[in-house]
Structure formats: structure tokens, C-alpha cells
Amino acid sequence: MKTAIFCCLFLAFVLVVRAVTHKLCGDTKCSPAQDCQDDKCVCSPIRCMILCPNGFKVDENGCEYPCTCA
Q1: pTM listed for this prediction
Q2: Which end of the chain, N or C, is surrounded by fewer C-beta atoms within 10 Å?
Q3: Which residues contact 37 (CB under 8 A, 6 or more apart)?
Q4: Beta-bridge partners for 25
């Protein structure tokens, strides 16, 4: 049980750190909601199973921030 709680807390920490950092991708910076693939910023494939009454927060490119309610 303690291991499951630790894993959940660790995953939440990783997602928060990821959400506040911009990543360099070639000559551009990806938003926190994007990943770099082949020197192009693409929407992150990470999906979250939480209920957000107003949907997830979306960046200027239309990509959803992982596990962040709007």
C-alpha cells in the first residue's frame, strides 16, 4: 500500500515539474504541454483519468496540459 501511494505521489511530482518547464526543440521552445519529436513540438501523449468539470488546461497550440484542470 505504501509503495502504491509513493508511486502516485512521485508521478504527480513528475507531472508538475514537467508542466512548469519549457523544453528546447531544435530552434524553438515547446510549451509544457508539448513534447519534442524529430525537432518538432507535438502534443504530449500523456492522458490523465481525472474529472475536470471545465476540461483540461490547453496551451496556445491546442495541446492539453497533462492532469491540469482548466
Answers
A1: 0.58
A2: N
A3: none
A4: 28
